[in-house]
Design goal:
The structure holds three protein chains of three kinds.
Chain A (H helix, E strand, L loop, with lengths): L3 E12 L2 E13 L4 E5 L6 H9 L7 E10 L2 E2 L5 H10 L1 E4 L13 H12 L4 H14 L5 H4 L9 H13 L5 E5 L7 H18 L2 E6 L2 H5 L4 E6 L2 E7 H6 L4 H9 L15 E13 L6 E13 L3 E5 L6 H8 L7 E6 L2 E2 L5 H7 L3 E4 L13 H11 L8 H11 L16 H14 L4 E5 L7 H17 L3 E6 L2 H7 L2 E6 L2 E7 H6 L4 H9 L6
Parallel strand pairs in A: 3-8, 3-9, 6-7, 7-8, 13-18, 13-19, 16-17, 17-18
Antiparallel strand pairs in A: 1-2, 1-4, 4-5, 9-10, 11-12, 11-14, 14-15, 19-20
Helix pairs in contact in A: 3-4, 3-6, 4-6, 6-7, 7-19, 10-16, 13-14, 13-15, 14-15, 15-16
Chain B lengths: L2 H7 L6 H11 L1 H23 L31 H37 L1 H16 L2 H12 L3 H28 L2 H8 L4 H37 L11 H10 L6 H28 L1 H5 L1
Chain C lengths: L1 H28 L13 H10 L6 H13 L14 H36 L4 H15 L2 H15 L16 H27 L2 H8 L4 H13 L1 H25 L4 H11 L2 H29 L1 H8 L4
Classes of the chains: A alpha/beta, B mainly alpha, C mainly alpha.
Chain lengths: ~525, ~290, ~300
């Protein structure tokens, strides 16, 4: 018999702007010890499915319109709030995406860990503490006795997610729902957390619903997969089948969008050097300790004409700071940056300003990098007019040509950023970056905030524009698969230092540094 | 298709201001507030023409009478028409509210923008000054000022404006600072635009929202402060009048002539209501978190 | 903890010094002196009086003398109440004012927090609109209007409560406390609602619910701590407002408190009395600001380390 059997679940949101159906007639089943993955892009309703089952949909505006969810033979959707609450505290547990915001900053880790036992299992605090420390040890938190009394801000992201997992498992639930549990984590940490979840699932014979946007993560974990789009289930199948022979066009599209393969890089060592960075050092003042923290440590590299050079590192490795200090958006402590025959770090802001049209940047978050009060036309025309690259009389021609270049509908010229989707916004931002015909573009995680199908389109656009305008590019990313498919050469950064630089194919076939090896091993693979 | 055609065919975009206005219009209380406020301002401006009696016109034989057909709000102890006095009092109260807020706005925005955009040591020094001033028990000082230097309207403006600009400066600075660190401002710098250009086109237009909201909410605070001082006998000097002064006089005779307390009280409360509703409505309408969905 | 408090106390010394200096010179700029009040005084008598109180000395010397006396804890004699020392007068008015401000603060916190939490639990329903409308009414109904209205209704018309005095008749403390506390209860309610709404939409509240905690635990244990921080930060400024507001309430209800002394002293140009009261009230306000800062810092685990004094 199925542990959880969801039938015809429909959830919608009633807002002032009308009714939107977030989950549309979804059914699925899950047996004891089984792992089900629900996969989809943002807005597909994958998380909302789980929230509906657990009665966690904010209401109002959310409303469960119809359906049943039999858990151990009892309908969760028909239960009273009190019954549902006691099930949540004992038989079904949940972990969430962002461990930074999901733990209460005002309570100690220990207090939060023992709560489910104290309030739902009527354990004494002493018993609960004993159990909590056991579980902390099991989930790989060292020195659990001391850390029991620590606050969340004293833990790293990966450690917090371990705490979340321990907290979820402390009542020995039958079902664990994990909502994008590794999305906010670095790739090496992600690998550790995934293997921890898998191990705990096996030893306890847990049923797990694993919600993710990342097919590669799901592959090594789930027994069966549900693919969702626009609130509906478009395909369901055993994991191996999904990857071997996807049936639905959307599943195929999703799989095709996952970056794979390796750019066959041309040998550009003979071509002209566009950018030369040597012995760059950047540090920041830490407000809490009053000490200077090194963000970039003696970094040197060169970038050739027509090259896409990848810069890879985990969060806090200083990769964004390198990009920003080259552009003098962040002051550097020392070093040299040679571009267009000038040493940028010694230039005054006035001189630098004249060079900036040749040296552009694409930012990570297309929601933050566009001025919300300016139309597409304003945004694209501004650099052209300011630098005298276009006359007022023909500015509209040029803006329209730019919009064609980046694949925006010409009719959208008078629209504001908030009227566009994330992918379209990133097109506007790219249009702005190429408007001044730059020689070099620094792209800082330009596709990280985007869904995988959109990411593919934007990456294709970047490749196309790099060729068409013979651009050179410093491509900053945490995503190794993206970098591998796009870049000619790759630099690996850790704690502000470059560990190794190599042609893409060499780096993957023969990584020199141990950190690089562990990075590469941590990346979940879509193909075996 | 020619360029001209495309521009003509372009789908009209909705700016954030247009969006905010649309949301504000949906908020019934805010619209009510705006309406009441407009009516009050018009009435106050037209007081000399629409007031039924002369402002100083006494009728000692009549004395204090309850509301009647001839005197809708009744008359005071000197037989003066209360409706007329409330109308004129409103002129002073509204003027104090608006002008003192304007003073605070000008000082606060200038101070806050400079501190926020320049940042670094300048910012630290400027904000340290604001912090120090904050620590001063201002309300006590204002009372002292008004007592010591007599009750001039001008001094009242300056005194109130001098207190209220502190918060305004903090809000503006915080706003400018957060805008300055946004990626689109960084993008503008990366684009090679000059500082004045960035300030004018990118920073200021995006920091207006909270400033407007705070200004709307400052007006009622200022009017309250004036009324408070007038009540203590430290504000406007008779025979000039403000709602605060009328309330103060009314409170002394409330047992015998409650209308002398109630009508000016109603007028003041209604105005404060209207302003607060409008301010709250504006805050909701301009809240970026609301506009995201 | 001790170090944090000490540092903050040291920081408030220049503020207090500014207050003293500004007040000292300000009142002496005012037209008129303490001895040219209502009835004309014989010039010789006036001179003698001024000499007695050292008012004939140069200004800077008077100032230094005053500072010296102050350091020894002496606020000088009152000019208007011969034979009374300023600190005796202050101490005689203090109990009533302090009690009034304290009760009003209690009214503000208890009513405000309850109303704010209620409203935040069911936003945009009657449970939200009703307390918040009342709060708006409280904000728009100034003390000096609410007081007389309460007196009119409960004192004259219904005859339920005494209309004046403090501690003379049973129940005479109710109306003044409510009058003074009402507006602050309204502010506290709005701040608490805002703070709670902010916190209730946080991810960690969803986590607490997903853990199956009863709603009361979610609200009072998980949400309230964070939700109250804006309110606690407001208590310092609120106390300053309460003290000033007590001037009005003391006038309305004829309570023999500090506020009335203060306004009277200012009108009478009773220099030492004005200075003494200003310094005293300012110290109180600064102290309460420190207290509310301390509390807000202690409530936040991320800031709590500052109290342990490793870094300043």
């Amino acid at each position: 018999m199925a542990l959880l059997s969801v039938r015809n679940l429909t959830t919608s949101f009633h807002t002032r702007n009308g009714v939107t159906t977030a989950v549309d007639d979804v059914s699925f089943e899950l047996k004891k010890g089984e792992v089900l993955a629900i996969v989809g892009e943002s807005g597909s309703g994958k998380s909302m499915c789980c929230y509906s089952v657990l009665g966690l949909v904010p209401s109002p505006p959310g409303k469960i319109e119809s359906g049943t969810a039999l858990f151990d033979g009892r309908d969760l959707l028909a239960m009273s709030a009190a019954e549902l609450q006691s099930i949540r505290g004992t038989d079904i547990a949940m972990i969430f995406q962002d461990p930074m915001t999901c733990l209460n900053p005002f309570l100690t880790i220990g207090e939060q860990l023992i709560e489910p036992l104290v309030y739902n299992r009527q354990k004494t605090r002493h018993q609960a503490k004993y159990r909590a420390i056991e579980l902390m040890r099991e989930t790989g938190i060292d020195r659990p006795e001391q850390r029991f009394n620590s606050y969340p801000h004293e833990f790293s992201g990966g450690m917090r997610q371990r705490v979340m997992i321990a907290m979820a498992l402390i009542t020995e639930p039958k079902l664990l729902i994990a909502d994008e549990p590794t999305t906010a984590l670095d790739v090496t940490v992600q690998a550790q957390i995934l293997s921890l979840i898998l191990e705990l699932q096996k030893t306890r014979d847990l049923a797990v619903i694993f919600v993710s946007h990342d097919l590669a993560v799901v592959r090594g974990l789930a027994h069966k997969v549900l693919v969702m789009k626009g609130g509906r289930v478009v395909e369901r199948n055993a994991t191996s089948n999904i990857f071997r022979s996807p049936q639905h066009a959307y599943t195929q599209q999703l799989l095709a969008a996952v970056p794979r393969g390796e750019k066959t890089s041309e040998d550009l060592s003979q071509s002209r050097t566009v950018l030369a960075v040597s012995k760059l050092n950047v540090s920041f003042l830490d407000r809490n300790s009053g000490k200077r923290l090194t963000a970039v440590d003696d970094v040197s590299f060169e970038l050739q004409k027509n090259e896409i050079l990848g810069l890879v590192g985990e969060s806090g490795s200083g990769k964004s700071t390198i990009g920003r200090s080259i552009l003098k958006l962040v002051p550097a402590d020392s070093g040299q940056v040679h571009f267009a025959g000038r040493e940028l770090l010694r230039l005054r802001e006035r001189e630098m300003r004249l060079l900036r049209p040749q040296l552009q940047m694409i930012f990570q978050d297309p929601y933050a990098s566009l001025n919300p009060r300016r139309t597409v036309f304003d945004t694209l025309a501004e650099p052209l007019l300011y630098h005298g690259l276009a006359k007022r009389s023909n500015i509209e021609h040029q803006v329209l040509a730019l919009m064609d270049d980046v694949g925006l509908a010409r009719t959208a010229i008078r629209k504001y950023p908030h009227e566009f989707s994330g992918g379209q916004r990133q097109r506007i931002a790219i249009g702005r970056a190429i408007s001044t015909r730059p020689e070099l573009i620094i792209a800082d995680e330009p596709v990280s905030a985007l869904d995988v199908t959109i990411q593919k389109q934007i990456l294709e656009l970047i490749i196309q524009l790099v060729e068409k305008h013979s651009l050179s590019m410093l491509f900053i990313s945490h995503d190794l698969a993206v970098v591998r498919s796009l870049c000619d050469r790759v630099m690996v950064l850790q704690r502000g230092r470059i560990l190794e630089v190599n042609r893409t194919e060499n780096l993957w076939s023969n990584p020199q540094h141990r950190y690089t090896q562990s990075l590469l091993e941590s990346v979940p693979q879509i193909e075996s | 298709m020619t360029v001209g055609n495309v521009i003509m065919d372009a789908e009209p975009g909705a700016s954030l201001w247009a969006d905010a206005w649309r949301r504000l219009k949906k908020n019934k209380l805010a619209v009510f507030g705006l309406l009441v406020l407009s009516v009050l301002i018009v009435i106050a401006l037209l007081a000399p023409w629409i007031a039924p009696y002369g402002y100083e016109q006494q009728n000692l034989e009549l004395g204090a009478t309850p509301p009647s057909f001839a005197h809708w709000f009744g008359t005071d102890l000197f037989g003066r028409d209360m409706l007329t006095r409330v109308l004129y009092g409103g002129r002073v109260s509204l003027a104090v509210g608006l002008i003192a807020t304007f003073v605070a706005l000008v000082i606060g925005v200038t101070w806050g923008t400079i501190a926020g955009y320049l940042g670094g040591r300048t910012d630290a020094v400027m904000m340290r000054i604001v912090d120090a001033l904050y620590a001063l028990p201002f309300i006590i000082f204002i009372i002292l000022l008004m007592v010591v230097f007599g009750r001039s309207v001008l001094l009242l403006f300056v005194a109130i404006g001098a207190v209220e600009w502190l918060t305004m400066a903090r809000i503006v600075r915080a706003q400018v600072l957060s805008i300055r660190n946004q990626e689109f401002v960084e993008a503008a710098r990366a684009m090679g635009l000059s500082t004045p250009h960035i300030l004018a086109k990118h920073v200021v237009p995006n920091s207006l929202g909270p400033i407007i909201v705070y200004a709307t909410l400052t007006v009622p605070q200022v009017m309250l402060l004036e009324a408070f001082l007038s009540f203590l006998g430290l504000g406007i000097q008779p025979p000039q009048s403000s709602w605060g002064l009328l309330i103060s006089h009314g409170a002394n005779v409330m047992e015998d002539s409650p209308w002398l307390l109630i009508f000016p009280g109603l007028a003041l409360s209604l105005t404060l209501f209207a302003l607060n509703f409008l301010g709250d409505g504006l805050r909701d309408a301009l809240d970026p978190r609301v506009s995201k969905d | 903890m001790l170090r944090f408090v000490l540092v903050r106390l040291l920081q408030s010394i220049p503020v207090l010094f500014t207050v003293i200096t500004a007040t000292f010179f300000l009142i002496r700029q005012a037209p008129g002196g303490p001895f040219d009040a209502d009835k004309p005084v014989i010039p010789a008598v006036k001179r003698a009086l001024e000499a007695k109180y050292n008012l004939d000395l140069p200004m800077w010397q008077q100032y230094l003398n005053y500072l010296g006396d102050l350091l020894r804890g002496d606020m000088g004699p009152s000019f208007k109440y011969p034979g009374w020392a300023v600190h005796d007068l202050i101490l005689s008015g203090l109990p009533a004012t302090a009690e009034l401000a304290l009760y009003a603060l209690l009214v503000a916190i208890i009513v405000g927090v309850l109303a704010g939490v209620c409203a935040a639990l069911k936003p945009n329903t009657a449970q939200d609109y009703i307390p918040m409308s009342v709060a708006m009414l409280g904000i728009c109904m100034p003390t000096f209007l609410l007081g007389p209205l309460l007196v009119l209704v409960f004192g004259f018309w219904l005859n339920w409560l005494p209309i004046s005095g403090w501690g003379d008749l049973p129940g005479d403390k109710i109306m003044p406390s409510i009058t003074l506390g009402a507006a602050y209860a309204a502010y506290v309610a709005r701040l608490t609602r805002g703070g709670m709404l902010d916190v209730m939409s946080q991810d960690y509240i969803r986590t607490a619910r997903a853990k199956g905690l009863p709603e009361r635990v979610v609200v009072f244990k998980h949400a309230l701590r964070g939700g109250l921080i804006p309110t606690i930060a407001f208590l310092g400024p609120a106390f300053a407002g309460l003290l000033a507001g007590s001037f009005v309430v003391e006038t309305i209800f004829q309570i023999p408190g500090l506020g009335r002394f203060y306004v009277q002293a200012a009108f009478n140009r009773d220099y030492t009395m004005i200075l003494g009261t200003t310094i005293f009230l300012s110290t109180l306000i600064i102290f309460f600001n420190l207290l509310s800062d301390l509390l807000a810092t202690w409530m936040n685990p991320k800031l709590r380390h500052q109290l342990r004094g490793q870094s300043v």
